[in-house]
Amino acid sequence: MAYKTLLTVVTRPDRAELAISGAAVLAAAHDAHLDILALGVDQTQVGYSYVGSGAVILQAALDRAEQDARDIEKAARKALAGQDPTLRSTLEAAITQLGTLTELVAQRARFADLVVLPQPYGGGQGADSEAVVESALFEGHAPVLVLPETGAASAANPRRIVIAWNQSAEAMTAIRKALPILKKADLVNIAVIDPPKHGAERSDPGGMLCQMLVRHGVKAEVSVLARTLPRVSDVLARHVRDINADLLVMGAYGHSRFREAILGGSTRNMLEQAEVPVLMAR
What we know:
- Helix 1 (16-29) crosses helix 2, helix 3 packs across helix 4 (127-139) and helix 7 (232-242) runs parallel beside helix 8 (265-273).
- The protein is of the alpha/beta class.
- The protein has 8 helices and 12 strands.
- The strands form 2 sheets. It has a 10-stranded mixed beta sheet, with helices on both faces.
């Protein structure tokens, strides 16, 4: 598998530079085409209105979303202008309500080899940022590379990578989707945290995965870590820092909310404190 179509979704003008510059460098590294969706989101959730005022409120919200889309598109074009002129890209502007965002983002994500998005948490982030990540992962079934405010430059050519391995199907999916990047790394560290004493890999935690990756030409090794901190995400974040990793690969976990899934606690915790890009899939 190779990354030939990348997608990024921008929902705020001030995030356009981070999303597009990170995705553009990655696209250049993999000779891929970059699709950009400038998305104006109507944040209004009308619960009630006075008689005769509903249409006015809806039209005002629509006008605001259209203006947001124009502002985001302008910021995206400015960010694109600063990229390598050989970059192949497509820019599309659209508007949506927060409740219908899932369908639009998922439809675009299904046809992308990798979705590149800014970190959905932090100052100034709204519900739309997390909804975009969830839509691409759970409804679009696409791998997602989340870029933190710092460390985004390493996403294109990470030299040291940590894999969070817990024998789950989600983790294995993320690893398979990450193979184009894993093969180019100088070191891939398979981190196994507090493995079960009676599990299938009890005699050699991470051994079969390491063997599989080595056969693909990946320079892999295994680290078995004790759970010495309250949260698994804390142990993982510390390990990423300890080995000076450039990228983390992990499965994306969630739970059902009506028909859709939302990010589970461990995944959310990891994204909240991530200092390096995180590649997730499920």
